[in-house]
Design a protein that fits this description.
174 residues; alpha+beta; Nucleoside Triphosphate Pyrophosphohydrolase; 2 domains; four-stranded mixed β-sheet; three-stranded antiparallel β-sheet; 45% strand; elongated; hydrolase; GDP-mannose pyrophosphatase; NUDIX_hydrolase-like_dom_sf; NUDIX_hydrolase_dom
Length: 174
């Protein structure tokens, strides 16, 4: 590292992330400002049915004002194990439980300004049940596609959610 932190301050404590502003000094003596979205991270689930179909969710994303097709995912609670988050989010969003979760990897979503790390799991041995969606997830739809269909949807731009693209990449290469 070619800098030292002079001052670090949480300027805003939010529900999803905190806004941290750091004043840094480079070895050259120049001063810089770094803004960081401090995020607890999350878990992404690739639910695979016995017939090989993958369950995706179609949901409205407020920041983009668009409906996206994505893998089920959610934010970690404070100090939560990512596997526990994956188990919770799978059932909450899809109604399914899984006999087995296999960690495929993890990604940094926006390392230029955010601390979020998403842990990606494959879920197999699915058992249907009832979802328990949060208020903002009430319009969510479940979709089922083969890996080849999902690959084509990514290539055509119909799926452009980064965690979903990364999750399918891990799946196809694991």
């Amino acid at each position: 590292m070619n800098y030292k932190v002079i001052k670090s301050e949480i300027r805003y404590k939010g529900k999803v992330f905190d806004h941290q502003v750091d004043e840094i000094q480079y070895d050259s003596g120049n001063i810089g400002i770094r803004e960081v979205a401090v995020h607890p991270g999350g878990a992404v689930v690739i639910p695979i049915k016995d017939d090989g179909k993958i369950i995706l969710v179609k949901q409205f994303r407020y920041p983009l004002q668009k409906t996206l097709i994505e893998l089920p995912a959610g934010k970690l609670d404070k100090n939560e194990d990512p596997l526990n988050c994956a188990v919770r989010e799978l059932e909450e969003e899809t109604g399914y439980k899984a006999k087995e979760f296999i960690k495929l990897g993890a990604i940094y979503t926006a390392p230029g300004y955010c601390t979020e790390i998403l842990h990606i799991y494959k879920a197999v041995g699915l058992i249907a049940g009832n979802h328990n969606r949060e208020e903002g997830e009430q319009g969510m739809e479940l979709l089922e596609f083969s890996t080849e269909e999902i690959k084509q949807m990514i290539l055509s731009g119909k799926i452009n959610d980064a965690k979903t693209i990364a999750g399918i990449f891990y799946l196809l290469n694991s």
